[in-house]
Design a protein that fits this description.
This protein has about 120 residues and is mostly helical. It contains three helices and no strands. Helix 2 packs across helix 3.
């Protein structure tokens, strides 16, 4: 009687632990699948945006220069946005700052190609 009750209770507790572990594993797998799908969608959207940008600019070289320049501008903006920080811009960065001109060049070339 008492021994059988303890065995039954023990088996019930064991089965409960198994069920909880399986539920946690299933939840982790579904979260991982959802995150993977979100990453794929973001990558697809970025690829589509890059394709459209390249088509709009009309030149792979200018598209690359544009992307480098805009990335530099964004990163530089984050760097200088911290209050109280002093910045020293080395001479070599003038090459990257040439990207500002690149954006203007791209726009000028695109306008000229649309208005022959």
């Amino acid at each position: 009687g008492d021994k059988q009750a303890r065995i039954s209770r023990s088996e019930g507790e064991r089965q409960e632990e198994i069920n909880v572990a399986e539920g946690e594993r299933e939840a982790k797998m579904r979260r991982a699948e959802g995150e993977a799908e979100a990453i794929r969608k973001v990558a697809d959207a970025k690829a589509d945006a890059l394709k459209r940008l390249s088509e709009a600019i009309g030149s792979k070289e200018l598209t690359t220069q544009f992307l480098v320049a805009t990335n530099y501008i964004e990163e530089f903006g984050r760097f200088v946005s911290r209050p109280g920080d002093k910045i020293f811009v080395p001479y070599e960065s003038s090459v990257a700052l040439g990207g500002f001109g690149t954006v203007a060049d791209i726009m000028e070339k695109k306008i000229k190609s649309n208005n022959p």
